[in-house]
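Can you make up a protein sequence with its C-alpha cells?

===
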Amino acid sequence: MRSKIGSDETVFFKYLLASNFVFQNFDDTTYANFYASGFLSKFARHILKRNMSNTMALDIQNSISRCDESRAFVFNGRGVNKSVGRILSNLDEVYWYLPDYLAHKEHKYLEEVATKIIFTKPSSYNEVRFRSSITVDKIVNICPTMFSFESEKIELQKRKFYRDLHEKSIDVVFLGNHSYNKELQISEIARLIRRKVYVIGSGWSDRNDIEAVGPIYGPALAEFLKKVKVGIAVPDSFGGTIDPITVRYFQYPLYGTLGVYSMNPYNRDLLNEKLLAYSFENFVEAADIIAEVLSMSGASYSQALAEQIAWLNSKATSAESVFSMLSQSETTL
C-alpha cells in the first residue's frame, strides 16, 4: 500500500497502524512507481521499473521467509510484476482490494492468485464475472472505503463546518483527473450555469469556464472542499458506462460539500430517494439542480447535506469493516 498521507490507501494504513496486526508494508512508490514529473524523470522510471520491481519481489520474498504464516492484502496491485505474482501464489491467502478497473497490465498477475477480489466499482464487478480466471466465489462487491474505523462515522455527524452555506466562497467544483470526456461535460455544465467550475485533479488547464486547482489530497483537499457549495460527479463517458461510481461520490459530503450526481444504471440503486433529488440524467437537469442548490437558504442547505452525510454513513465502508470480513491472522503482509 502507498503510505503517503492523502492517498486512497491512507484509511487502511491508519487502521493497520492503530490495530494489533503484525505487518510489513511494501509501497510501490519507493520501488518501481516513484513520482516523476518531467520527461527525463519519467524516462528514468521506465528504464528502472523492471529492476526495481524485481527488488520489491526479493524484499517480499525475504519477508515471507521469516513468517510461519502469511497473508497478503494488496491495494490496487500497482507494481505487481510476474515475480511478485509468483511469490504471492505461495501465500496462505491473498486479499486484493481493487478500487480501479482491471485495466493495468499488472492486474493479470493477481487474477489467478487472489483468494478474494474486493471491488468497489459495480461495473468492474459485472465485467470480471465472465472472466475464466476469476471464479464467482472470489468476488466481493462493496462501496468505497472512506473511514479507518466505524466510530469515525459517529464523529462525522458532529462536525460543525458542514452547517453554514454562507461561509462557503466557491460555488461549484469537480473532483477528478482530466480526460477529454470529462472536460466536455464540465465545460457544458459551466456554460449552462454561467459560472466557472473549479476542477481538482491532474491534467487540467485554465480556460474561460474552468479554473484548474491542480491535484490536492488529504487535509488540503478537506480544507478546500469546506469552502465549496456544490460538487459535481460525472462519469468518464457520455454513456455512463465507464467510471459510474467513484470515491468522489462519497468525498463531497464527507468534506462538507453537497454532491450533485450523474445518474446511470449502476448508481441508481446506490442512491437513495433523497440523493436522487440531486441527481441528473442530462446537463440541463444538472444546471437546474445546481441553480436550486445555490439559491438555498442556509437551513435548507444544511438539511440536504445532513441527508447526504447520513447516506454516506450507511453506504461507505471502513477499513475496520473490510478486515472484519476477512479471516484474521497474527501476520498480515
About this structure: The chain has two domains: 10-143+317-332, 155-315. The two ends are 10 Å apart (CA to CA). The first helix runs from residue 10 to 18. Confidence is low (pLDDT under 50) at residues 238-242, 329-333.
